[in-house]
Amino acid sequence: MPLDALVTGSRVATLAGDHGFGWVEAVGIRGGRVASAGSAVELETRADPHTLRIELEPGEIAIPGLIDAHLHLVEAAIAAEHVDLTLALTLDDGLAMLAAAHAALPAGAWLLGAGWDQRRWGRWPAAADLERAAPGRAAALWSFDHHAVWASPAALAIGGVDADLSDPDGGIIRRLADGSPEGVLLENACPLVSDRVPSPTEPEVRRLVGAMGRQLAALGVVGVHDPGNITPDPALTAFDAYGAMADAGDLPLRVHACLRSEGLEVAAARGLRSGQRLGSRPDGRATVGWLKLFADGTLGSQTAALIDPRTGTADDRGVFRTPPELLRDLAEQAAELGIASQVHAIGDAAARAALEALAPTVDRVALMPRVEHVQLLHPDDLGRFAAGGIAASVQPVHLREDAVTARRDWGERAEAWAYPWRSLLESGAVLAFGTDAPVEPIDPWPGIAMAVLRRDPGWGSDAPAFGPDEGLTLEEALRAATIGPATTAREPDRGRLVPGARADLIVLPAAPREPGEEAPPSFADVRPRLVMIDGEVAFEE
User: Fold this and answer.
1) Using N-to-C axis directions, what is the helix angle for 399-410 and 445-453, rounded to 10°?
2) pLDDT for 404-417, tens place per residue?
3) pTM of the complete model
């Protein structure tokens, strides 16, 4: 049979084998998969007048489509319609944005947003600040890392948060001198208010996810692993939305949807297992992913769980959001159901607890158990990823904002043990890249550039790279953004452009350098000219 599509131009990176770009002249596509890869002259003999021909322009290359291993798709889609405080350089800037949003909202509606950072603003925001900007309004605003909620007096009252309420296990209520709540809730205290925010309807979720999926496809992202809703979803309504979209053919890209621990009972009742299709179509684009668990908090909120105290403190070792023994119990419960687990772990104590919780489940689940983030890793635990069959799911773009805080809070550990991407790769670990949107923007390219350069233009031209020995080559970074996520999902037909693989392909305007060469800073701003998913054009400039 003739080819459905033929991509030619002498610069197609197949990523075949374990090393190198695997350059070929052309790729032929049939039935949504790569039928052949090699000589343009040879593949031309398999085309006919109906074959779609895609000729690379001079300087262009084609590479496999990217898979984001950690992107909260539903939450990012919803957040796109809320106040984005990442644009507010000062508290006053943020309050002006919130006042404008408050004026545009109907009475009784919640004021929602995210992106504030007490480090950028110079102090923690307070409920009293919100009351000035949006008097009487119930407001809940996530921090930049989504591990703290800034709440208004009305929202605190709705959540029953007052001076008499004790901090929940694994959570912190910031307080004034008299014990009353100041207005910020951290870690497991966040749900006191966030659980009271009305959820969008399924039609709203489907509309927003469709729009966000098309934006991602335009960036070259052909699949995402959604770690689950930041707000609780015990009924697995996100799964229902994904399944309905898959059945209707409305998902612009592939999705592995994860659940949180409060959804385990419903998952068990439905007989859901990792790797199972959501919806009724066997070729649907939605799949059951992992159980998402949380070991600790974050670097920015000073709640990362550490083996040794935070630098400059006598005994501040952060917070375990989930005690290690409960992590093990939950991972075990999930494995009994056939559901793999992934564990959020920022600090080295959290990473160690995550590895210990996941190790007994590896051989009993369809997907690779994963540790998410791995921002600080004790050297004694480095080899446990490869030895235990546990993947490291990391988001290099976090280093852009975290470098200063990591050096301050982790001292000498920071550049020796933090963001250890090369060490993980050389130890044999499977490395999978993501963005963590909406914590960070959905654009995957700045993270890929950060993985190579270990510095950001925003740091200034004289700023040193952060732990430069842990940088990757561009080829290695691209493999972590394509093959790595597919490997954790046990999908050998994704992430490469080799015969039998899914024909997921993106055309870029600038060729990457050869292995070992540094990526140009402009690579962070690259945009695809064309994107194919399953051999069909999903985006064309």
Assistant:
1) 40
2) 999 999 999 999 99
3) 0.91
